[in-house]
Amino acid sequence: MTDTEKLLQLKNLLLDEDRELAQKILQKLDELQHTIDTKPELAEKVNPIIDDKLKVFTEEIPGKLGPTIALALEEQIKNSQEQVVNILFPIIGKMIKKYIASEIKALSDSINAQINKTFSFKRYTVKIKSFFTGFGQTEVMISEMAKSKVVQVYIVEKGSGLLLGSFSKQNTIDEDMLAGMLTAIKSFGEDAVQTGDQSLELIEYEFYKIYLKNFHTYYVAMVISGIFDDVFKNKLEDDLFRFAKKQINPNIQNKAVLNTQLAHFFKDA
Amino acid sequence: MLKSKKIVLVGHFGVGKSSLIRRYVQNVFSDDYFVTVGVHIVKKVVQVNNQELTLLIWDIEGKEDMKKLRPSFLLGTSGFIYVLDASRPSTYEILEDELDFIRTNYPKTELVTVANKIDLVDKESFIATLGEKAPWITHFSSAKTGECVELLFEKLAHTLVQ
Ligand SMILES: Nc1nc2c(ncn2[C@@H]2O[C@H](COP(=O)(O)OP(=O)(O)O)[C@@H](O)[C@H]2O)c(=O)[nH]1
Ligand SMILES: [Mg+2]
């Protein structure tokens, strides 16, 4: 082979390779064109990439953009409080209404259960009452429940918080400890306010109240269920003064006598 | 005569007032520290001279100075238990002032002084470091081991009925 021949052969070889490469590239381009032209095939390739990016995006957005969004929202709420209230009002209103409705239903259910449980005699009286008053049986029961009643009475020595006498329509927690804690709460409140001769008079809970009346060396705590209004309070005070004069003062050192007298006096109050 | 008495435990934070009461009333001990907020009252009925005596034990939050205590919590007390921590000298640095304060303001009230956490120190050397304060301490107790706890309350209960 001459040198020229050799050179030619080499050229062919190289060119062939060139041609092959060009061919391959063209083929790829064709495929690509095809993929782009036919969407589903493109989606098949591109979707995983988008998904990946989206995942990163959603992972990062709360940290990166969250504060900005919150700030913007806050600003917006600040600037248009009324609008926000208007939007929220019906939603909250509905929630409250629903809650109250379910509570009333629960109450009415429990009253109905109570009606079924109590003596038939009592049921008749309620029925008669509701017949005459024109209210439903349940409504009459609700007003019965709301009637104020003295449920428990404690006579407690001031300072020491020691129990001098007590009366309870239902069994409760340890009365000695209760008297002590009441005294602590009472004196804590009175220390905290410190406006001279003021004393704590009423502790209110959801379904009952504790009415406190001071005497010289002791105070009387009465647990009251139902509505506690001025009429009831005045009557209670009168009763209490009468009872204190007649029974507490002479029997202050005698717990057993006090307990009997308390039960006698308050069993129907 | 009333068959119940009010007892109040006083002393700095963390000396073991609540622990002493828990050991005495429930016979338990815990290494965890629950800060007493306000006041907690427990009851224990004891036999004294074949008669029942109800102790109402007031556990009030610790203060580094008796004068800072709510006076109304101390009214009507029959017996004070002044507690100090044998392992922390700062809890008995002003012991004399504290005891004087109680005796002056509550002259009719019984008073016992207790060095608690005695399990953490060597009793003899503790007494030695107390020096002139040593005679003021009436009991050396440990709420952890129970040492002297029952004795302390019962002795006080006895003095209260006399
Ligand atoms: N080693 C030991 N630790 C005690 C003793 N009494 C109380 N403690 C611990 O001391 C801490 C404070 O006790 P506490 O009764 O709450 O103190 P208070 O603030 O005086 O009521 C708690 O971690 C207890 O476990 C004791 O006798 N020995
Ligand atoms: Mg405590």
What does this entry look like structurally?
- The complex is a heterodimer of chains A (269) and B (162).
- Chain A is of the alpha+beta class and 269 residues long.
- Chain A has three domains: 3-59, no CATH class; 83-145, no CATH class; 149-266, Beta-Lactamase (2-Layer Sandwich), CATH 3.30.450.70.
- Chain A contains nine helices and five strands, in the order ααααααββαβββαα.
- A five-stranded antiparallel sheet of chain A has the order 2-1-5-4-3.
- Chain A is rod-shaped, with a radius of gyration of 43 Å.
- Chain B is α/β, with parallel strands linked by helices.
- Chain B has one domain (3-161): Rossmann fold, CATH 3.40.50.300.
- Chain B has helices at 17-26, 71-74, 95-105, 123-130, 149-161, and strands spanning 4-10, 39-48, 51-60, 79-85, 110-116, 139-140.
- Chain B has a six-stranded mixed sheet with strand order 2-3-1-4-5-6, sandwiched between helices.
- In chain B, strand 2 (39-48) and strand 3 (51-60) form a beta hairpin.
- Chain B starts with a strand and ends with a helix.
- The chains are: A alpha+beta (269), B alpha/beta (162).
- Residues 13-19, 30-31, 33-34, 36, 62, 116-117, 119-120, 142-144 of chain B line the site of guanosine-5'-diphosphate.
